[in-house]
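Reopening this one. Same input as before:
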Amino acid sequence: MIFQSTNIPFLNKALDAYSLRQQVIADNIANVTTIGYKSKHVSFEEQLDTALGKKSLPVIRTHYNHIPYGCPAPDDGGAKIVEDDADNYISGVNNVDFDHQMSELAKNQIRFKFSTKMVQDIFSGLQKSIKGTL
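Same output, byte for byte:
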């Protein structure tokens, strides 16, 4: 219950999405010379924005056991693999742009490191609270 009151469920989803994105980018890079291969990408931020955008009215919880209104469940905003439908063959044999994939890989690594740092900070704060050194 204590972890549900933190950002850990959402950070868990983010880390899962970044791990999946790493795999998809690696697949794209591995298939850069495969004839007819269509690159893929992971749609996560868009899914999360949609889930977070569900809030419509400001609601105040009057009791901690009440279900929060407008706050997405950790199951919302999951990552999805999307196949790019562009038919322009950038490499001559498929639509994989190697330079774009490498830049996406770098951005994904930064996002992953940032998310792990946030999880680490949450656990560090909880540990300090438990020890009474906060």
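So the earlier flakiness isn't reproducible anymore. For the record, Residues 71-75 have pLDDT under 50 and may be disordered.
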